[in-house]
Every structure is written in C-alpha cells, then in structure tokens.
Specification:
By secondary structure, this protein is α/β, with parallel strands linked by helices. The protein is built from one helix and eleven strands; from the N terminus they run αβββββββββββ. The strands form three sheets. Strands 2, 3, 4, 6 and 9 form a five-stranded mixed β-sheet that branches. The protein starts with a helix and ends with a strand. The structure holds copper (II) ion. The site of copper (II) ion has 6 residues, from loops.
C-alpha cells in the first residue's frame, strides 16, 4: 500500500471512531442545567419527543422545566412526572413551566400520558 492510501485509510478510521464515540457516549450525556437565580431552569422542546431528553440537575435545589410544545399530535398533550406527582397539559405553541424540588439523587422519568415520549431527569 502506498503511503497516501495508508493515510486516507487511517483518516477514515479516525472519523468513524469519532462518529461512533459521539453517538454512543457524548449524545447520552444529557444536558446539564445551570442555576438561574432560585431555580435550575431548562426549556424542553416537545416535538416528536423531548429535546433534550436527558436533563441533569443537582439535588436539593428547585427545578423549573419549561415545556414548549410545537406540535398538535394528541400524544404529547400531557406531560407526567410521576415521581414528583406533577403533570401538565401542554397547549400547542405555549410554554408551560413545571416546578418541583428533587430531594434525592437518582434517575426519574418524565413521559407523555401514554408513555410513548420519554425523557429522563438525572438528579446528582
Ligand atoms: Cu403519547
């Protein structure tokens, strides 16, 4: 093999590894929420799912998740956070805040009323 071919092969291999790493590790890390005043606040886009769908917060500080729904599918018209006894109806085009206090570290799911859309709140 010529040197140029080896370089191209190695570059291609490097790129593949980077892409795999991005999807399997980096993408799963989730979004770390920064505290804004009293609340740790994040906006979640509701459209074909939740974006971001993994949200990382600290325990012991109030959290405000602002759900912004940009679709009319009945599936996503409610969001439930069963571990915090919270739920809300999300009218299309509006932003609905849900506030709660995560007291214990752990992983908590949020979902639509049928459980088709899912997201995860990681409390550290
Ligand atoms: Cu649903």
């Amino acid at each position: 093999m010529a040197t140029a071919q080896i370089i191209v092969t190695l570059a291609g291999l490097g790129l593949s590894i980077t892409i795999v790493w991005f999807f399997f590790f980096s993408a799963k890390e989730g979004m770390r929420v920064e505290a804004k005043g009293k609340f740790q606040e994040a906006t979640v886009l509701v459209k074909g799912g939740y974006t971001p769908d993994v949200i990382i917060v600290e325990h012991g500080k109030p959290v405000r998740l602002k759900f912004h729904r940009q679709e009319t599918a009945a599936c996503s018209e409610m969001v439930l956070l069963p571990d915090f006894n919270k739920s809300a109806t999300l009218p299309t085009g509006e932003t609905v805040p849900i506030e709660f206090l995560p007291e214990k570290p752990g992983e908590y799911e949020f979902s639509c009323q049928m459980g088709m859309f899912r997201g995860k709140l990681i409390v550290e």
